[in-house]
Amino acid sequence: MSQSEFYSRFSSVVARHSGIILELPYEIPRGWVAYRIFFNEELMGVATFPTSSQWAMAIDELRDERTDRSSVLTIRCSML
Description:
The chain has one domain (3-79). The chain is 34% helix and 32% strand. It contains 2 helices and 4 strands. It has helices at residues 3-16, 52-64; strands at residues 20-23, 33-39, 42-49, 73-79. The longest helix has 14 residues, at 3-16.
C-alpha cells in the first residue's frame, strides 16, 4: 500500500465520524500495528490489525456501539 493510499483510507474514515482524532506516526508502519483507542481520553482498548481496511471496519463497529456522538475518539497507533 502506498503512502497516499494509506492516508486516503484513514481520511475516509475520519470524514465519516465526527470527533475522531488520529495520532499517526510520521512514517507508514510496516507489519502489525497497535491502535490504542480512547474515548474522551479514557482508554477503551487496544486493537491490532495488519491493514487499514480492517482498522476502519473495527472503528465503524466501535462507533456504532456509542450513542453519544459528541464523544471524542482518539486513535494512537504504534508498531508492536
